[in-house]
Amino acid sequence: MVDVFLNEKFVGTVTDQNEFLNIIKSQRRDGTITEKLNIGYNGDLDEIHVETTKGRCRRPLIIVKNGKSTLTEDHIQKIKDKSLSWTDLVKEGIVEYLDAREEENALVALDENQVTKDHSHLEISPITILGICTALVPFSNFGSSSRLIRGSKLQKQGLGVYAQNYLLRLDTDASILHYPQRPITKTFMHDVFNYDQHAMGQNFTIAVMSYQGYNMQDAVILNKGSVERGLGRTTYFKPFSATEMRYSGGLMDEVGIPDKEMKGYRSERDYRNLEDDGIVFTEAKLKADDVLIGKTSPPRFLGGLDEFNMDANTRRESSIALGEGMHGTVDATFLTENEEGNRLVQTRLRQQRIPEIGDKFASRHGQKGVIGLLVPHTDMPFSSRGITPDIIFSPHSIPSRMTVSHLLEVISGKVGALAGEYIDATTFDTPTEKGLRKQLMNLGFSEDGKETFYNPMTGEKIDAKIYTGNIFYLKLKHMVANKMHARAAGRIQLLTRQPVEGRAMGGGLRVGEMEKDCLVAHGASLLLKERFDSDKTILHICETCGMFATYDSYKNQAICTRCGGDAKVSPVEMSYAFKLLLDEVRSLGIDSKIELKEKF
């Protein structure tokens, strides 16, 4: 007897599990029972599980009967004529949805030519194994799975036109590409996805070669002339907002130019861009520490006795200002109200971002890299036909990653650009390499995609032939302007006296065990001394009992409270974090003693 479970609950037993499974499946296909039901047999536990619960991941497959697909040419013609819909295919028992449990008992063929009598289902198309972003990668059946995953993730980070009403929105981290293009090499998903409406990226002329070592590892070299003509140029938008909050006692924030007597008043220079209403004017060019929205707030803590205290009743300055190292132009200002009915002022800052060394670019095949050098147009290698590449890509990035799809896109982009047509390189349905080579030859170019290049510095012909063509490249949101971070002395935490964390806070850079090893290997051990002094403190310790002594800075004298004035007390330099640890251990009732030895 085989146990039967419905939604994980035991409901009974059956004698012949195969007959039971076939009856349930046939009734589901003819509509007698719900199509949302799935059934699976677990041979190890000898159990049948029937599932009708929500939240299961189910996918459609074509049903195979007696070694033949139930989807015939007649059905396909009716679908083309729009006389048959998807729901009709499900109702007629041609297509059914399987969940993970039922798929364990199914044998699915990838292609109709592979169907045998043992098969139970057929894939609608092999491309259904890919998601939307992965299906956008051309020639993806020529790339490894790990690169495909990276390729789909990189496309999500690409900059383009993310929404057509971007000027009316205040998104946190928005960038708009100035001259987005339609890719020459595309897939069917570009049309389904309406990619033209949300274009991101541009068609670059690429040369696969090394150039003075500036494209080592994953770096790429960009033509400065192309960048000056608008290649990879974006605008970055950053919003700022201030709310007039209401507090108990009828007090509230006020947006306006703060008074000079105000607590925390900045310099007059910081408020120079504000208009009479305390809000910055549109198209104002701002630098670090400039105020965008002037605001004052009531005193923070008001007690009963504070009413008669003049200092306590002073309002404090709480303006919204630009942070460290920020600059830009005021793009727009919106005055509105929030959900509570409080006045809300929102301002958007605009920055033009021209590609610079350290900005990240990537192709759709998981080949990402930062700019290692911007080369003047006159110093870029050029082909015998006078073509100067926009980007120089390192050939060492290909062998270990085996991204053949990247190389194929270079040659198909070249064919598309020369023939004036778009190349459809949908996964499992791509144009053949042989066909592309033949087309390239007919267009008057070498069939292998290689061309003779010249060294611009010396005018000599480069010995090796260079693989060159067109490829669709994305500028990614990881720009060096958002990440550059340096700090000397600055703000520290109250508890540990170590630098605060985070770039926005003007914080420090944490050096771990491995970073320490790198600096030692680099010969920069003095830098480590400086780093580990970030919370340096001097404690006076009694050499007799090992306890902390008290230090009188007025008399410049240290005394041990246990041993008296005769005991020898020495100043010891240590990390404040260690002193804090000793204090915390002492708070548990465990006394700690520091034994001192003479330095030799």
Kindly name the structural category. alpha+beta
Largest sheet: 6 strands, mixed, barrel
Would you give the CATH topology of the largest domain?
Answer: Dna-directed Rna Polymerase Ii 140kd Polypeptide, Chain: B, Domain 6
Instruction: Give the integer mean of the pLDDT values.
Output: 91
Provide the domain count: 5
Which sequence of strands runs across the widest sheet? Answer: 12-26-13-24-23-30
Overall, the morphology is extended
CATH architecture of the largest domain: Beta Barrel
Report the portion of residues in β strands: 25-35%
By CATH's scheme, which homologous superfamily of the largest domain applies? DNA-directed RNA polymerase, subunit 2, domain 6
Q: Radius of gyration in whole Å, from Cα?
A: 35 Å
How many runs of DSSP E, i.e. beta strands? 34
Molecular structure report:
The structure is a single chain. A six-stranded mixed β-barrel has the order 12-26-13-24-23-30. The protein is of the alpha+beta class and 600 residues long. α9 runs parallel beside α10. The chain folds into five domains: 123 residues, no CATH class; 218 residues, Dna-directed Rna Polymerase Ii 140kd Polypeptide, Chain: B, Domain 6, CATH 2.40.270; 119 residues, RNA polymerase II, Rpb2 subunit, wall domain (OB fold (Dihydrolipoamide Acetyltransferase, E2P), Beta Barrel); 48 residues, no CATH class; 52 residues, RNA polymerase alpha subunit dimerisation domain (DCoH-like, Alpha-Beta Complex), CATH 3.90.1800.10. The chain contains 14 helices and 34 strands. The longest helix is centred in the C-terminal third of the chain and has 16 residues. β21 and β22 form a beta hairpin. The mean pLDDT is 91. The chain is extended, with a radius of gyration of 35 Å.
